[in-house]
User: What shape does this take?
Amino acid sequence: MRDLDQFLLNRNGRWHYIRRVPQCYAHLDTRNIIRTSLRTASLEVARARRDALVEADDHFWVSLGAENDLGLSELLVGQTANALQRYEVAKRRAMARGYIYTPVNELAETAQLQELIERLTHVGKQTINQGVEAEAVLGGAQMPTVSITDALNIYCEKIALSELLGKSENQKKSWRKVKQRAVNYFVELYGDLPMDQITRKQGRDFYNWWGERLTPKKGKPGLSANSANRDLGNLRKLYRVYWEYVGEEGRENPFRNLHFTDNSIRDVPPFADQWVRSRILLPKLFEDLKPEAVLIVFGLIETGCRPSELANLRSEHIILDHEVPHIKIKPTSERQLKSASSIRDIPLVGVSLEAFKQAPNGFPHYQDKGNLLSASLMKAFRARKLFPTDQHRIYSFRHSFEKRMLEAGLDYGLRCLLMGHKNSRPNYGDGGSMVYRRTELMKIAHPVPMGFARDLKSIC
Assistant: This one.
Protein backbone atom coordinates (compact mmCIF):
# COMPACT_ATOMS: atom_id res chain seq x y z
CA MET A 1 0.00 0.00 0.00
CA ARG A 2 1.12 3.52 -0.75
CA ASP A 3 0.62 4.81 2.79
CA LEU A 4 -0.16 3.54 6.26
CA ASP A 5 -3.83 4.60 6.14
CA GLN A 6 -4.66 3.67 2.56
CA PHE A 7 -8.31 2.59 2.06
CA LEU A 8 -9.31 4.11 5.44
CA LEU A 9 -11.85 6.92 5.90
CA ASN A 10 -13.04 8.42 9.19
CA ARG A 11 -16.69 9.41 9.33
CA ASN A 12 -18.07 10.91 12.53
CA GLY A 13 -15.34 9.26 14.57
CA ARG A 14 -15.83 5.76 13.10
CA TRP A 15 -13.50 4.13 10.59
CA HIS A 16 -14.57 2.75 7.21
CA TYR A 17 -12.87 0.66 4.53
CA ILE A 18 -13.21 2.36 1.12
CA ARG A 19 -11.69 0.72 -1.95
CA ARG A 20 -12.31 0.76 -5.69
CA VAL A 21 -12.65 -2.58 -7.45
CA PRO A 22 -9.58 -3.04 -9.72
CA GLN A 23 -10.38 -2.41 -13.37
CA CYS A 24 -9.28 -5.89 -14.42
CA TYR A 25 -12.02 -7.41 -12.20
CA ALA A 26 -14.72 -4.78 -12.82
CA HIS A 27 -16.58 -7.09 -15.25
CA LEU A 28 -16.76 -9.77 -12.54
CA ASP A 29 -17.35 -7.62 -9.45
CA THR A 30 -19.90 -4.85 -10.18
CA ARG A 31 -19.66 -3.07 -6.84
CA ASN A 32 -17.37 -0.39 -8.36
CA ILE A 33 -16.49 1.03 -4.92
CA ILE A 34 -16.46 -1.06 -1.73
CA ARG A 35 -17.67 0.74 1.38
CA THR A 36 -17.58 -1.19 4.65
CA SER A 37 -17.81 -0.01 8.24
CA LEU A 38 -14.94 -1.35 10.35
CA ARG A 39 -17.05 -0.98 13.49
CA THR A 40 -14.36 0.79 15.50
CA ALA A 41 -13.16 4.25 16.51
CA SER A 42 -9.60 3.01 17.07
CA LEU A 43 -7.15 3.69 14.26
CA GLU A 44 -4.97 0.72 15.27
CA VAL A 45 -7.92 -1.68 15.23
CA ALA A 46 -9.10 -0.15 11.95
CA ARG A 47 -5.70 -0.75 10.34
CA ALA A 48 -5.69 -4.40 11.44
CA ARG A 49 -9.21 -4.96 10.11
CA ARG A 50 -8.36 -3.06 6.92
CA ASP A 51 -5.36 -5.37 6.36
CA ALA A 52 -7.57 -8.42 6.77
CA LEU A 53 -10.12 -7.07 4.30
CA VAL A 54 -7.42 -6.17 1.77
CA GLU A 55 -6.10 -9.73 1.89
CA ALA A 56 -9.58 -11.21 1.74
CA ASP A 57 -10.66 -9.03 -1.20
CA ASP A 58 -7.42 -9.66 -3.10
CA HIS A 59 -7.96 -13.40 -2.75
CA PHE A 60 -11.62 -13.05 -3.72
CA TRP A 61 -10.75 -11.22 -6.95
CA VAL A 62 -8.07 -13.73 -7.90
CA SER A 63 -10.57 -16.53 -7.22
CA LEU A 64 -13.17 -14.77 -9.38
CA GLY A 65 -10.71 -14.70 -12.25
CA ALA A 66 -9.82 -18.34 -11.79
CA GLU A 67 -13.47 -19.36 -11.48
CA ASN A 68 -14.25 -17.47 -14.65
CA ASP A 69 -11.60 -19.51 -16.48
CA LEU A 70 -11.94 -22.90 -14.80
CA GLY A 71 -15.17 -23.08 -12.85
CA LEU A 72 -15.32 -23.09 -9.06
CA SER A 73 -15.57 -26.87 -8.67
CA GLU A 74 -12.49 -27.51 -10.83
CA LEU A 75 -10.59 -24.80 -8.95
CA LEU A 76 -11.25 -26.02 -5.42
CA VAL A 77 -12.21 -29.71 -5.40
CA GLY A 78 -9.34 -31.86 -4.22
CA GLN A 79 -6.90 -28.96 -3.82
CA THR A 80 -5.91 -29.04 -0.19
CA ALA A 81 -3.81 -25.91 -0.27
CA ASN A 82 -6.67 -23.91 -1.80
CA ALA A 83 -9.09 -25.24 0.80
CA LEU A 84 -6.73 -24.10 3.53
CA GLN A 85 -6.40 -20.71 1.93
CA ARG A 86 -10.18 -20.42 1.69
CA TYR A 87 -10.47 -21.24 5.38
CA GLU A 88 -7.82 -18.65 6.27
CA VAL A 89 -9.49 -15.96 4.16
CA ALA A 90 -12.82 -16.64 5.85
CA LYS A 91 -11.19 -16.16 9.26
CA ARG A 92 -9.59 -12.89 8.18
CA ARG A 93 -12.79 -11.57 6.63
CA ALA A 94 -14.73 -12.34 9.83
CA MET A 95 -12.10 -10.49 11.86
CA ALA A 96 -12.32 -7.52 9.51
CA ARG A 97 -16.08 -7.39 10.14
CA GLY A 98 -15.46 -7.32 13.87
CA TYR A 99 -16.32 -10.97 14.57
CA ILE A 100 -14.28 -13.93 15.77
CA TYR A 101 -14.50 -16.69 13.18
CA THR A 102 -16.47 -19.58 14.70
CA PRO A 103 -17.42 -22.81 12.85
CA VAL A 104 -21.16 -22.92 12.22
CA ASN A 105 -21.82 -25.93 14.47
CA GLU A 106 -19.94 -24.31 17.35
CA LEU A 107 -21.68 -21.00 16.68
CA ALA A 108 -25.09 -22.68 16.92
CA GLU A 109 -24.21 -24.22 20.28
CA THR A 110 -22.35 -21.42 22.04
CA ALA A 111 -23.31 -18.02 20.59
CA GLN A 112 -25.75 -15.72 22.37
CA LEU A 113 -29.00 -15.02 20.53
CA GLN A 114 -28.10 -11.34 20.08
CA GLU A 115 -24.79 -12.23 18.42
CA LEU A 116 -26.53 -14.67 16.06
CA ILE A 117 -29.05 -12.01 15.06
CA GLU A 118 -26.22 -9.50 14.45
CA ARG A 119 -24.34 -11.92 12.24
CA LEU A 120 -27.44 -12.94 10.27
CA THR A 121 -28.47 -9.31 9.84
CA HIS A 122 -25.02 -8.42 8.53
CA VAL A 123 -25.16 -11.21 5.95
CA GLY A 124 -28.70 -10.29 4.97
CA LYS A 125 -27.66 -6.72 4.16
CA GLN A 126 -25.09 -7.85 1.58
CA THR A 127 -26.18 -7.36 -2.01
CA ILE A 128 -23.07 -8.97 -3.49
CA ASN A 129 -20.65 -11.60 -2.21
CA GLN A 130 -23.37 -12.80 0.16
CA GLY A 131 -22.05 -16.36 0.02
CA VAL A 132 -18.51 -15.24 0.81
CA GLU A 133 -19.77 -13.09 3.69
CA ALA A 134 -21.91 -15.91 5.05
CA GLU A 135 -18.98 -18.32 4.91
CA ALA A 136 -16.89 -15.91 6.99
CA VAL A 137 -19.43 -14.43 9.42
CA LEU A 138 -21.51 -17.59 9.93
CA GLY A 139 -18.56 -19.99 10.05
CA GLY A 140 -19.25 -21.95 6.89
CA ALA A 141 -15.63 -22.52 5.84
CA GLN A 142 -14.66 -25.72 7.57
CA MET A 143 -11.05 -26.57 8.35
CA PRO A 144 -10.15 -29.21 5.72
CA THR A 145 -8.77 -32.57 6.77
CA VAL A 146 -5.09 -32.64 5.84
CA SER A 147 -2.98 -35.80 6.06
CA ILE A 148 0.62 -35.71 7.20
CA THR A 149 1.72 -36.41 3.61
CA ASP A 150 -0.32 -33.46 2.31
CA ALA A 151 1.02 -31.31 5.15
CA LEU A 152 4.57 -32.10 4.03
CA ASN A 153 3.70 -31.06 0.47
CA ILE A 154 2.22 -27.79 1.71
CA TYR A 155 5.30 -27.19 3.85
CA CYS A 156 7.73 -27.86 1.00
CA GLU A 157 5.82 -25.99 -1.68
CA LYS A 158 4.33 -23.05 0.22
CA ILE A 159 5.60 -22.57 3.77
CA ALA A 160 9.34 -23.15 3.28
CA LEU A 161 9.88 -20.98 0.21
CA SER A 162 12.31 -18.71 2.06
CA GLU A 163 14.37 -21.71 3.22
CA LEU A 164 14.81 -22.85 -0.37
CA LEU A 165 15.89 -19.52 -1.82
CA GLY A 166 19.41 -19.82 -3.20
CA LYS A 167 19.51 -23.61 -3.05
CA SER A 168 20.46 -25.56 -6.18
CA GLU A 169 18.14 -28.25 -7.53
CA ASN A 170 20.21 -31.00 -5.89
CA GLN A 171 20.32 -29.08 -2.61
CA LYS A 172 16.52 -28.80 -2.73
CA LYS A 173 16.21 -32.53 -3.38
CA SER A 174 18.52 -33.36 -0.47
CA TRP A 175 16.66 -30.91 1.78
CA ARG A 176 13.33 -32.55 1.01
CA LYS A 177 14.65 -36.11 1.04
CA VAL A 178 15.42 -36.16 4.77
CA LYS A 179 12.00 -34.69 5.60
CA GLN A 180 10.26 -37.15 3.31
CA ARG A 181 12.10 -40.02 5.01
CA ALA A 182 10.70 -39.10 8.43
CA VAL A 183 7.15 -38.84 7.09
CA ASN A 184 7.50 -42.13 5.19
CA TYR A 185 8.56 -43.94 8.36
CA PHE A 186 5.64 -42.43 10.27
CA VAL A 187 3.14 -43.40 7.55
CA GLU A 188 4.50 -46.97 7.44
CA LEU A 189 3.87 -47.29 11.17
CA TYR A 190 0.56 -45.47 11.66
CA GLY A 191 -0.87 -44.74 8.22
CA ASP A 192 -1.32 -41.37 6.52
CA LEU A 193 -3.05 -39.80 9.53
CA PRO A 194 -4.80 -36.43 9.40
CA MET A 195 -2.70 -33.81 11.16
CA ASP A 196 -5.39 -33.17 13.79
CA GLN A 197 -5.43 -36.87 14.72
CA ILE A 198 -1.72 -37.24 15.53
CA THR A 199 -1.47 -37.66 19.30
CA ARG A 200 1.24 -37.68 21.94
CA LYS A 201 0.93 -41.47 22.02
CA GLN A 202 1.99 -41.74 18.40
CA GLY A 203 4.83 -39.31 19.07
CA ARG A 204 6.10 -41.46 21.93
CA ASP A 205 5.56 -44.69 19.96
CA PHE A 206 7.63 -43.29 17.08
CA TYR A 207 10.35 -42.36 19.60
CA ASN A 208 10.27 -45.91 21.05
CA TRP A 209 10.36 -47.45 17.55
CA TRP A 210 13.53 -45.53 16.83
CA GLY A 211 14.91 -46.53 20.23
CA GLU A 212 14.65 -50.19 19.27
CA ARG A 213 16.55 -49.53 16.05
CA LEU A 214 19.36 -47.87 18.01
CA THR A 215 19.82 -50.91 20.24
CA PRO A 216 22.61 -53.28 19.04
CA LYS A 217 21.33 -56.76 18.20
CA LYS A 218 23.15 -60.06 17.62
CA GLY A 219 26.54 -58.46 17.60
CA LYS A 220 25.53 -55.80 15.08
CA PRO A 221 25.87 -52.13 15.99
CA GLY A 222 22.71 -50.10 16.34
CA LEU A 223 21.85 -47.21 14.05
CA SER A 224 23.03 -43.68 14.74
CA ALA A 225 21.14 -41.52 17.23
CA ASN A 226 21.77 -38.66 14.85
CA SER A 227 19.40 -40.23 12.30
CA ALA A 228 16.72 -40.74 14.93
CA ASN A 229 17.00 -37.17 16.19
CA ARG A 230 16.84 -35.85 12.65
CA ASP A 231 13.57 -37.70 11.97
CA LEU A 232 12.05 -36.61 15.28
CA GLY A 233 13.16 -33.04 14.68
CA ASN A 234 11.71 -32.98 11.17
CA LEU A 235 8.34 -34.30 12.35
CA ARG A 236 8.35 -31.86 15.25
CA LYS A 237 9.03 -28.93 12.93
CA LEU A 238 6.50 -30.07 10.31
CA TYR A 239 3.77 -30.26 12.97
CA ARG A 240 4.66 -26.82 14.37
CA VAL A 241 4.96 -24.88 11.12
CA TYR A 242 1.86 -26.47 9.58
CA TRP A 243 -0.39 -25.41 12.46
CA GLU A 244 1.24 -21.99 12.54
CA TYR A 245 0.46 -21.71 8.83
CA VAL A 246 -3.24 -22.36 9.38
CA GLY A 247 -3.33 -20.02 12.37
CA GLU A 248 -3.50 -22.49 15.26
CA GLU A 249 -0.19 -21.84 16.99
CA GLY A 250 -1.43 -23.09 20.35
CA ARG A 251 -1.62 -26.79 19.47
CA GLU A 252 0.60 -28.93 21.68
CA ASN A 253 3.26 -30.69 19.64
CA PRO A 254 3.07 -34.52 19.98
CA PHE A 255 6.81 -34.76 19.19
CA ARG A 256 7.90 -32.23 21.82
CA ASN A 257 10.95 -32.97 23.99
CA LEU A 258 11.66 -36.31 22.29
CA HIS A 259 15.39 -36.58 21.74
CA PHE A 260 18.14 -39.21 22.05
CA THR A 261 21.53 -38.51 23.60
CA ASP A 262 24.18 -39.28 21.01
CA ASN A 263 27.24 -40.81 22.68
CA SER A 264 28.70 -42.35 19.55
CA ILE A 265 32.12 -41.29 18.31
CA ARG A 266 32.13 -40.77 14.57
CA ASP A 267 35.21 -38.60 14.08
CA VAL A 268 36.81 -39.07 10.69
CA PRO A 269 40.56 -39.58 11.26
CA PRO A 270 43.09 -37.51 9.29
CA PHE A 271 45.57 -38.95 6.85
CA ALA A 272 49.13 -39.12 8.17
CA ASP A 273 51.57 -36.91 6.25
CA GLN A 274 53.75 -39.86 5.28
CA TRP A 275 50.74 -41.79 3.99
CA VAL A 276 49.75 -38.89 1.72
CA ARG A 277 53.30 -38.42 0.42
CA SER A 278 54.08 -42.07 -0.20
CA ARG A 279 50.66 -43.44 -1.25
CA ILE A 280 48.52 -40.64 -2.70
CA LEU A 281 50.75 -38.00 -4.35
CA LEU A 282 51.12 -40.25 -7.40
CA PRO A 283 49.02 -38.88 -10.29
CA LYS A 284 49.50 -41.94 -12.48
CA LEU A 285 47.82 -44.03 -9.79
CA PHE A 286 44.53 -42.41 -10.92
CA GLU A 287 44.97 -42.73 -14.69
CA ASP A 288 41.64 -44.53 -15.23
CA LEU A 289 39.68 -42.07 -13.08
CA LYS A 290 37.86 -39.10 -14.60
CA PRO A 291 40.43 -36.24 -14.81
CA GLU A 292 38.17 -33.76 -12.99
CA ALA A 293 37.92 -36.15 -10.03
CA VAL A 294 41.71 -36.53 -9.93
CA LEU A 295 42.19 -32.76 -9.90
CA ILE A 296 39.66 -32.35 -7.10
CA VAL A 297 41.58 -34.90 -5.00
CA PHE A 298 44.81 -32.92 -5.28
CA GLY A 299 42.91 -29.66 -4.92
CA LEU A 300 41.60 -30.82 -1.54
CA ILE A 301 45.00 -31.59 -0.07
CA GLU A 302 46.36 -28.05 0.36
CA THR A 303 43.06 -26.13 0.62
CA GLY A 304 41.19 -28.11 3.29
CA CYS A 305 37.95 -27.52 1.37
CA ARG A 306 34.84 -29.61 1.51
CA PRO A 307 34.64 -31.68 -1.72
CA SER A 308 31.37 -29.99 -2.71
CA GLU A 309 33.02 -26.56 -2.36
CA LEU A 310 35.62 -27.42 -4.99
CA ALA A 311 33.17 -29.25 -7.22
CA ASN A 312 30.97 -26.15 -7.48
CA LEU A 313 33.67 -23.55 -8.13
CA ARG A 314 33.03 -21.35 -11.15
CA SER A 315 35.77 -20.05 -13.42
CA GLU A 316 35.45 -16.58 -11.89
CA HIS A 317 36.23 -18.06 -8.48
CA ILE A 318 39.59 -19.50 -9.61
CA ILE A 319 42.13 -16.67 -9.65
CA LEU A 320 45.41 -17.82 -11.20
CA ASP A 321 46.65 -14.54 -12.74
CA HIS A 322 47.32 -12.89 -9.38
CA GLU A 323 50.36 -12.24 -7.23
CA VAL A 324 48.97 -14.98 -4.99
CA PRO A 325 46.93 -17.53 -6.96
CA HIS A 326 43.84 -18.39 -4.94
CA ILE A 327 40.27 -19.64 -4.98
CA LYS A 328 37.15 -17.91 -3.70
CA ILE A 329 34.62 -20.00 -1.81
CA LYS A 330 31.37 -18.07 -2.05
CA PRO A 331 27.67 -18.69 -2.68
CA THR A 332 26.05 -18.16 -6.05
CA SER A 333 22.50 -17.36 -7.06
CA GLU A 334 21.96 -21.09 -7.68
CA ARG A 335 23.71 -22.60 -4.69
CA GLN A 336 24.08 -21.95 -0.97
CA LEU A 337 27.10 -22.61 1.23
CA LYS A 338 26.89 -24.45 4.52
CA SER A 339 27.15 -21.21 6.53
CA ALA A 340 28.19 -17.57 6.23
CA SER A 341 31.58 -18.40 7.76
CA SER A 342 32.22 -20.74 4.80
CA ILE A 343 32.83 -17.69 2.58
CA ARG A 344 36.62 -17.32 2.27
CA ASP A 345 39.62 -16.86 -0.02
CA ILE A 346 42.27 -19.59 0.09
CA PRO A 347 45.79 -19.27 -1.42
CA LEU A 348 46.83 -22.09 -3.75
CA VAL A 349 50.10 -23.78 -2.87
CA GLY A 350 51.90 -27.04 -3.61
CA VAL A 351 50.03 -29.84 -5.34
CA SER A 352 46.73 -27.92 -5.13
CA LEU A 353 48.18 -25.08 -7.19
CA GLU A 354 49.36 -27.59 -9.79
CA ALA A 355 45.89 -29.15 -9.88
CA PHE A 356 44.13 -25.84 -10.46
CA LYS A 357 46.52 -24.93 -13.25
CA GLN A 358 44.89 -27.85 -15.08
CA ALA A 359 41.37 -26.73 -14.12
CA PRO A 360 41.13 -22.95 -14.62
CA ASN A 361 37.42 -23.27 -15.44
CA GLY A 362 36.48 -25.50 -12.54
CA PHE A 363 34.86 -28.92 -12.65
CA PRO A 364 31.62 -28.71 -14.70
CA HIS A 365 31.04 -32.48 -14.68
CA TYR A 366 30.59 -32.45 -10.89
CA GLN A 367 28.76 -29.14 -10.42
CA ASP A 368 25.76 -29.75 -8.17
CA LYS A 369 26.62 -33.48 -8.18
CA GLY A 370 28.22 -33.88 -4.78
CA ASN A 371 26.86 -37.40 -4.29
CA LEU A 372 28.32 -38.56 -7.60
CA LEU A 373 31.72 -37.10 -6.72
CA SER A 374 31.70 -38.67 -3.27
CA ALA A 375 30.70 -42.11 -4.59
CA SER A 376 33.32 -41.99 -7.36
CA LEU A 377 36.17 -41.01 -5.04
CA MET A 378 35.21 -43.49 -2.31
CA LYS A 379 35.14 -46.30 -4.88
CA ALA A 380 38.49 -45.25 -6.37
CA PHE A 381 40.23 -44.98 -2.98
CA ARG A 382 38.91 -48.32 -1.75
CA ALA A 383 39.88 -50.08 -4.97
CA ARG A 384 43.44 -48.73 -4.60
CA LYS A 385 43.56 -49.40 -0.83
CA LEU A 386 44.27 -45.73 -0.13
CA PHE A 387 42.34 -45.64 3.16
CA PRO A 388 44.58 -46.65 6.11
CA THR A 389 41.51 -47.77 8.11
CA ASP A 390 37.80 -48.38 7.60
CA GLN A 391 37.09 -45.07 9.35
CA HIS A 392 38.99 -42.94 6.82
CA ARG A 393 37.02 -41.03 4.20
CA ILE A 394 37.70 -38.40 1.51
CA TYR A 395 36.91 -35.89 4.27
CA SER A 396 40.12 -37.08 5.95
CA PHE A 397 42.00 -34.63 3.71
CA ARG A 398 40.13 -31.74 5.36
CA HIS A 399 40.90 -33.07 8.83
CA SER A 400 44.56 -33.52 7.86
CA PHE A 401 44.72 -29.90 6.70
CA GLU A 402 43.36 -28.68 10.02
CA LYS A 403 45.71 -30.93 12.02
CA ARG A 404 48.77 -29.73 10.07
CA MET A 405 47.85 -26.08 10.69
CA LEU A 406 47.41 -26.73 14.41
CA GLU A 407 50.72 -28.56 14.78
CA ALA A 408 52.58 -25.88 12.79
CA GLY A 409 51.31 -23.22 15.21
CA LEU A 410 49.24 -21.22 12.71
CA ASP A 411 47.14 -18.49 14.29
CA TYR A 412 43.75 -19.67 15.57
CA GLY A 413 41.84 -17.00 13.68
CA LEU A 414 43.62 -17.85 10.43
CA ARG A 415 42.86 -21.54 10.94
CA CYS A 416 39.17 -20.77 11.41
CA LEU A 417 39.13 -18.56 8.34
CA LEU A 418 40.84 -21.08 6.06
CA MET A 419 38.64 -23.91 7.28
CA GLY A 420 35.44 -21.87 6.95
CA HIS A 421 34.68 -22.28 10.65
CA LYS A 422 33.03 -19.71 12.86
CA ASN A 423 35.63 -17.89 14.99
CA SER A 424 34.59 -17.83 18.65
CA ARG A 425 37.00 -14.98 19.39
CA PRO A 426 36.43 -11.30 18.52
CA ASN A 427 37.22 -10.71 14.86
CA TYR A 428 39.73 -7.93 14.13
CA GLY A 429 40.79 -7.11 10.58
CA ASP A 430 40.32 -9.28 7.51
CA GLY A 431 42.33 -12.34 8.49
CA GLY A 432 45.56 -11.14 6.93
CA SER A 433 46.66 -10.44 3.37
CA MET A 434 46.81 -13.15 0.75
CA VAL A 435 50.62 -12.97 0.87
CA TYR A 436 50.52 -13.60 4.62
CA ARG A 437 48.10 -16.49 4.22
CA ARG A 438 50.25 -18.10 1.54
CA THR A 439 53.39 -17.71 3.68
CA GLU A 440 51.65 -19.48 6.54
CA LEU A 441 50.31 -22.26 4.33
CA MET A 442 53.75 -22.90 2.91
CA LYS A 443 54.76 -24.00 6.42
CA ILE A 444 52.48 -27.04 6.15
CA ALA A 445 52.53 -27.77 2.40
CA HIS A 446 53.65 -31.22 1.28
CA PRO A 447 56.73 -31.15 -0.98
CA VAL A 448 55.67 -31.42 -4.61
CA PRO A 449 57.17 -34.70 -5.94
CA MET A 450 59.57 -34.58 -8.85
CA GLY A 451 57.63 -34.82 -12.14
CA PHE A 452 54.26 -34.33 -10.37
CA ALA A 453 53.13 -31.48 -12.67
CA ARG A 454 54.17 -33.44 -15.78
CA ASP A 455 52.38 -36.62 -14.70
CA LEU A 456 49.27 -34.66 -13.70
CA LYS A 457 49.15 -32.93 -17.07
CA SER A 458 49.56 -36.24 -18.90
CA ILE A 459 46.43 -37.77 -17.38
CA CYS A 460 44.32 -34.62 -17.78
